[in-house]
Amino acid sequence: MPAHPFYKEAGATLIEVLVAMVVLAIGLLGLAGLQATSIQSNHSAYYRSQATLLAGDLADRMRANRLEALTNAYLTDFPTSSSTNTVTGTTAEKDVAEWLNQLALTLPDGTGKVEKNDTLVTISVRWNGTRGQIKASGDNNTHSETFAYRTEI
User: What is the pTM of this model?
Assistant: First the structure.
């Protein structure tokens, strides 16, 4: 007779299986949170890309119409976001109206501002950035992002 009796292992116990399932569930929840953060970051990056393109578009329009740009015809100061700006008047007025319409259609609550100091122009684009916000602040309704583009005409 052997000193140690043989115990035949029949497989994993129920407790081992449950512990493995809990560990797996915690890992999957972590991945789901990471995916949500990634989506929000992608929204923020998309809006910043659109703001960059739209600011560059207005800068190009100003360079193409340099004489009016130098006479402050393009200056504007964050009007209310609207895609119904009337596209009439001088070339500069048309350019600004089209730009503001495009901002409102592309970015949530998108609007813009143009400032000029001699030949240095600052084009600012503002939009509601709550969809791209990763960490919640106290008041989510007033979270705005502003992108500034400086160039010389």
Answer: 0.77
**Contact residues for 107 (Cβ-Cβ < 8 A; gap 6+):** 47, 50, 51, 54, 125, 127, 128
Q: Which two tokens stand for residue 120?
A: 């240095």
pLDDT (average), residues 105-119: 94
Nearest of 104, 103, 95 to residue 59 by alpha carbon:
95
| CA-to-CA dists, residue 25 to 13, 28, 31, 32, 150, angstroms | 19, 5, 10, 11, 49
Alpha-carbon gap, residue 80 to 53, rounded angstroms: 20
- State the residue for tokens 């407790």: 15
Q: Which residues pair with 117 in a beta bridge?
A: 120
Task: Find out whether 59 and 151 touch, Cβ atoms under 8 Å.
Answer: yes
The rounded distance, in Å, linking the Cα atoms of 64 and 77 is 22
The whole-number pLDDT of residue 141 equals 55
Q: Are residues 103 and 125 in contact, defined by beta-carbon separation less than 8 angstroms?
A: yes
3-state secondary structure 66-99: HHHHHCCCCCEECCCCCCCCCCCCCHHHHHHHHH
